[in-house]
Amino acid sequence: MNTVALMREVYPVGFPLMSAIFGGIVGSFLGVVAERVPGMVMEEEGSGNLLFPASHCPVCQHRLSAWENIPLVSWLVLGGRCRRCRTAIPLRIFLIELFSALFCGITAWCAPDIPSLIAVWLLAAFLLPLAMIDWRHQLLPDCLTQPLLWAGLLFHAFGYSLALRDALFGAVAGYLSLWLLYWAFRLFTGREGLGYGDFKLLAALGAWCGWQALPAIQLAAALSGIAGYFALNSLNKNNLTISFGPYLSFAGIVVFIGQQFASIF
């Protein structure tokens, strides 16, 4: 019996619950990443870094106390508002913590082994802030996409899941496929349909999932992107700028979970 299965047998509720708590804590940090990295990349004044300044209200500069930083709980207790000035705390902060908690709890409950569980958590920890940043800023920072690519290659360098050559081919093929699509679209329309960050993100997903999974990732991203476009267009009739990163991220994590957790189905 592997370690994850043993933990689930001994602690059928405790193991997923502790994983969910861990996910909420990580999600709180990922929210900081999603909020601060764009300003750091664009060198905005006062953007700071991931550690300093400490978490605070951007309006009244009230520094959050320890109890105001408890994932999920603080947002609910405060009613989604700053304790001092009552400025609304963005709902996305709560949602990223909630998603992280649920994701870690559910995957811990069904993961086949420890390496697969850690890999899925690590991939999601990169993809979640990348999706949020691209959604809000149309930006996929190199400081996240490049470490994500190298992490995928290192994971497979230790012999997990894929041969390293498949991961390498996946990275190259992922980048080139969108690069060629970008230039073909630009040649025929005179407009840019994708950004270079999308190339790098698909290269990273190719490193994690292998070249064999790229068609599935691209198809799932395209279909979900089309669905997302029509859904958003029905709510907002103005011209929409659709970020492709969130849909690539969604497709990538779904395909990778399918690969790593295939033995449980």
Written account of the structure:
- With 265 residues, the protein is mainly alpha-helical.
- It has 2 domains: 1-110, no CATH class; 113-264, no CATH class.
- It is 68% helix and 0% strand.
- The protein is built from 10 helices and no strands.
- The two termini are 17 Å apart.
Beta-strand percentage range? under 5%
| Number of H/I helices | 10
Give, in order, the helices and strands: HHHHHHHHHH
| Classification by helices and strands | mainly alpha
Uncertain ranges: none
Topology summary:
Blueprint: H1 3-10, H2 14-41, H3 73-77, H4 91-110, H5 114-137, H6 142-157, H7 164-189, H8 196-209, H9 214-235, H10 245-260
Please provide a brief summary of the model.
This is Prepilin leader peptidase/N-methyltransferase. The protein has 265 residues and is mostly helical.
Observed structural traits:
single chain; globular; 68% helix; 265 residues; 2 domains
